[in-house]
Automatic annotation (TrEMBL):
This is Nuclear transport factor 2 family protein. PANTHER family: BLR2505 PROTEIN (PTHR41252:SF1). It comes from the Bacteria. It comes from Allokutzneria oryzae. Residues 18-112 form the SnoaL-like domain. Pfam families: SnoaL_2.
């Protein structure tokens, strides 16, 4: 899923890439919880919600590179620590930050994602 997400964002998002490559990784009733302070914050539900989320991400970030990932837990919910280097579309500013995610997998597909950002204010400031 992370490789497909990187390809989607690198291609330029909607109109240049298709959500169809990402859809098989997500349960039909998937729920993504994003911090409200982010430009793409809120609760995203189902494939339609995930597709809208990736559109919002593509509008926010010119590039979003997952520099390093460490899987801290591979059972129960998965726990993934990711170092990100991102380039904001609106401001042309760059930022490095970490995300810690818990990911629930049901029937081989992602059913819930809960990311934690250490500093949402810094991300919001860079993205304008």
């Amino acid at each position: 899923m992370y490789a497909a997400e990187s390809r989607y964002l690198a291609a330029g998002g909607p109109g240049k890439a298709s959500f169809a490559e990402l859809a098989p990784f997500f349960a039909e009733d998937v729920v993504l919880h994003q911090a409200d302070a982010l430009p793409y914050g809120g609760l995203w539900r189902g494939h339609d919600g995930m597709e809208r989320f990736f559109v919002a991400m593509s509008k926010t970030w010119e590039s979003f590179e997952m520099v390093r990932q460490e899987f801290l837990a591979t059972e129960g919910p998965l726990v993934v620590l990711t170092d990100v280097h991102a380039h904001a579309r609106a401001t042309a500013k760059e930022i490095d930050f970490r995300i810690l995610q818990t990911i629930t997998v049901t029937g081989g597909r992602i059913s819930e994602v809960r990311p934690f950002y250490w500093d949402t204010a810094a991300i919001a400031a860079v993205t304008g």
